[in-house]
Design goal:
The structure holds two protein chains of two kinds. Chain A is about 0% helix and about 50% strand. Chain A is mainly beta. In chain A, the strands form two sheets. Chain A has an eight-stranded antiparallel β-sheet with strand order 1-12-3-8-9-10-5-6, with no helix packed on it. Chain A has a four-stranded antiparallel β-sheet with strand order 2-11-4-7, with no helix packed on it. Chain B is built from no helices and 14 strands. In chain B, the strands form three sheets. Chain B has an eight-stranded antiparallel β-sheet with strand order 1-14-4-9-10-11-6-7, with no helix packed on it. In chain B, strands 3-12-5-8 form a four-stranded antiparallel β-sheet, with no helix packed on it. The chains are: A mainly beta, B mainly beta. At the A-B interface, β5, β6, β9 and β10 of A face β1, β9, β10 and β14 of B.
Chain lengths: ~180, ~170
C-alpha cells in the first residue's frame, strides 16, 4: 500500500482555522489533503493555507482556472502570505453544503524543490457553484521540508474537516 | 495488506539532465495506472511541453482535449504524441517543478485507452503560468507495457521525478 492516513481534524465549534497539522512525518514522498469545508461568512469563502508557520509576505503565489456554470476564467493571486485553496461555500449557501477538494503536494520533504500544490475541487449549491483547479508555489529563500501545514478560514463552520495522507513511492526504477 | 494503490516504479533524474525517461515491463496485474510527475527542463523559455508515448508507438494514434487557462481555451487535436505535460523552463522561478498526474483506466484491456491528465506549471508571475485539465486517448487496443516521456525543446533536469502506481479494483 502506498497511501497512508497521517492525521485528521474536524471543526467542532466555529473557529478561524479548519486544521493545523504539526510534526508531519518525513517518511513519505508526497502529501495529499482531502478538504471538506464551509465558511461562516457570506459568499464564497477562501481556504488559506500556510506552510511551516511562514507568514512572510510574498512567499506564496496561487493561480486558478474555474467555471461557475456560466463562464470560465483564470486568476492570479499575486504574491501573498498564504496559498489560496479552493473556494468553499459560505453562510448564504444552503445549510449543510460543504466544498470538497483534493490537494496534492509533491516531494514535500525536498530541500531542492520549491513546494508546488495542485488542487481540484469545488461545490454545488443546487443553482450555483464553482468547479476549479488551483495551483500554488511556496518559495521561501531556504527550501525546507514541510513539517507543519495549516488550513485557515474566517471562520470555519462546524463539521469542516481536513484529512492528511502520506503517499509513498517505489524504489524500483523500471528503466 | 491492501494493494489498492501500489507503487510500481519511480525514476528520479540524478545527473544534470536526461533526454528521456522510459518505464519498461509494466506489470499487467492491475486495473488502472496512475502516473505522478514533478518535472523541470533545460528549455531556455518559461515552459516546455513534455510528450508521452506508449509501447514505442510513434504513429498518429494519440489525441487529447484540454481545458486550459489564459486564454480560457478548449482544443482537441489528433497527434503522434500526447503532450499537454509541462516542464518548468529556465526563465521560470528557480527550483520550481511542474506538478502533474495522469490516470489511465483499463490499461491492459483490448479497448482504446482513455485517460485524464491534470497539469499545473507554477511560476512567480501574473502572466506566465499553466493550468490544464485534459482528457486524452491512445487509439490502440494493445495493453500498455511501456511508457516514454521526453521534453520537446530540451532535456529533463536533475531532481525531476516520475512515479508509476497500479490501482487494483475490488474483486481481484
Amino acid at each position: 500500500m502506498s497511501m497512508y492516513p497521517i492525521a485528521s481534524q474536524t471543526v467542532t465549534s466555529a473557529q478561524t482555522y479548519i486544521a493545523t497539522f504539526t510534526g508531519i512525518p518525513q517518511t513519505f514522498q508526497h502529501l495529499e489533503a482531502r478538504i471538506f469545508a464551509r465558511g461562516t461568512n457570506s459568499g464564497p469563502n477562501s481556504d488559506l493555507i500556510q506552510i511551516n508557520n511562514d507568514v512572510y509576505a510574498s512567499n506564496y503565489r496561487t493561480h486558478n482556472l474555474y467555471g461557475n456554470g456560466a463562464s470560465v476564467a483564470s486568476a492570479d493571486s499575486g504574491a501573498s502570505t498564504f496559498w489560496n485553496g479552493n473556494l468553499i461555500p459560505g453562510s448564504d449557501s444552503t445549510s449543510g453544503i460543504f466544498g470538497v477538494s483534493i490537494l496534492t503536494i509533491l516531494d514535500y520533504t525536498s530541500t531542492t524543490k520549491n513546494k508546488v500544490f495542485r488542487s481540484i475541487g469545488g461545490y454545488d449549491t443546487n443553482g450555483g457553484g464553482i468547479a476549479e483547479i488551483r495551483s500554488g508555489v511556496y518559495f521561501n529563500s531556504t527550501i525546507s521540508p514541510i513539517t507543519t501545514i495549516s488550513f485557515y478560514v474566517a471562520n470555519a463552520a462546524v463539521g469542516s474537516r481536513v484529512d492528511l495522507y502520506g503517499i509513498s513511492t517505489s524504489s524500483v526504477t523500471g528503466a | 495488506m491492501s494493494v489498492f494503490l501500489q507503487p510500481i516504479y519511480t525514476q528520479t533524474v540524478s545527473s544534470s539532465s536526461v533526454g528521456g525517461i522510459t518505464f519498461n515491463n509494466i506489470p499487467q496485474t492491475f486495473t488502472d495506472l496512475k502516473i505522478v510527475m514533478s518535472i523541470k527542463g533545460t528549455y531556455s523559455g518559461d515552459f516546455d511541453s513534455v510528450l508521452m508515448r506508449f509501447n514505442s508507438d510513434a504513429g498518429n494514434n494519440y489525441s487529447y482535449t484540454v481545458l486550459a487557462q489564459a486564454p480560457n481555451s478548449y482544443s482537441s487535436s489528433n497527434n503522434n504524441v500526447i503532450n499537454p505535460f509541462l516542464a518548468n523552463g529556465a526563465t521560470t522561478t528557480s527550483s520550481t517543478f511542474t506538478n502533474m498526474e495522469t490516470y489511465i483506466s483499463n490499461y491492459t484491456s483490448s479497448n482504446k485507452k482513455s485517460m485524464t491528465i491534470d497539469v499545473v506549471g507554477e511560476n512567480n508571475s501574473s502572466s506566465s503560468y499553466k493550468l490544464f485539465l485534459c482528457a486524452a486517448l491512445w487509439s490502440s487496443t494493445a495493453a500498455i507495457t511501456s511508457l516514454y516521456f521526453q521534453a520537446s525543446n530540451g532535456n529533463i533536469s536533475q531532481y525531476s521525478t516520475i512515479s508509476l502506481y497500479g490501482i487494483l479494483r475490488s474483486g481481484i
